[in-house]
Amino acid sequence: MIVLVKPGYLENDLKALKSHLVHTGFAIQETQGASQIVLYILGDTTRFDEKTLYAFACVDSVIRVQKPFKESQKNNAQAPRDFMLNNVTYHKKHPLIIAGPCSVESAVQIDAIAHHVKQCGAHGLRGGAYKPRTSPYNFQGLGEKGLKMLSETAKKYDLLSVSEITNKDDLPLFESLIDIIQVGARNMQNYDLLKALGKSRKTILLKRGFVNTVDEWLMSAEYILSNGNRSVILCERGIRTFEPSTRHTLDLSSVLVAKKLSHLPVIVDPSHAAGTFEFVAPLAKAALAVGADGLMIEVHDAPERALSDGNQSLTFKNFSHLMATIKTLVNAL
Ligand code: PEP
Ligand code: MN
Asked: I need a surface site. Which of 104, 139, 169, 236 has the fewest CB within 10 A?
């Protein structure tokens, strides 16, 4: 960390600042720059909130060198070498494909969808049972019953089950039924939930909040990793911008930024970003082209009758077509 001292500082104030830093456990190297004093602060600043230094009147600016996300950062010694699930390694040349309906609606529906996505080469079956809907009057999911349907169907087709948790009290239930526990965009900063998931040994799929920066997303991952769970997958799903023609704006740069800063795998959900089925396949291909490690796609046997997000769900035919294109695309990467 580097602290620039204001020209015209008061001697006593600078003394107080230095003594505060030493008491906090840092070493200081002081240099007289062309126009101001520069303090180089040496030591582990992970747990230090640099903004507190602005309380000293002599502080002009503070520049962080070390990123505050210690566990997720790229050069972390404990970083897993490969992104593996059930002994299968995934990466941009062999992307993890999770597909399924927005919500589990019935045993017949989830079975038909699982059968199709498996045939097309998907690895995971998604389906919400606890739905965080914007309106309390909309379908809220089948709860435990839906989670069991998803779990049984995923097992039947040898697919990884993926479902969203909204409340930490449901964790034991999810741990008994679900392979990959999803944290939705609306809960990315639900720190109690993240801490609880940090104690779990299940893989956590952490979606980016639609009003959150990449740094904030990585800090949320940090809550899970620093509590002991080393298995986290990031998922970009679009952010809110001033552009109203898509549901959200798919921020593909964030895949590059997150992969540059961290060792965590990053997948992309183009369905919730697009909000309309026509844009899903092109965005999915773009995501793989920038180096995403996988995709999460909403698929429905009858999108026009879906209880949630039918407008952005791919039909079986569209999903088959996308999967065939993906095979050619990843070979060309
Ligand atoms: C979902 O995947 O079903 C979902 C609600 O997504 P998000 O949290 O990204 O809105
Ligand atoms: Mn959805």
From this structure: 169
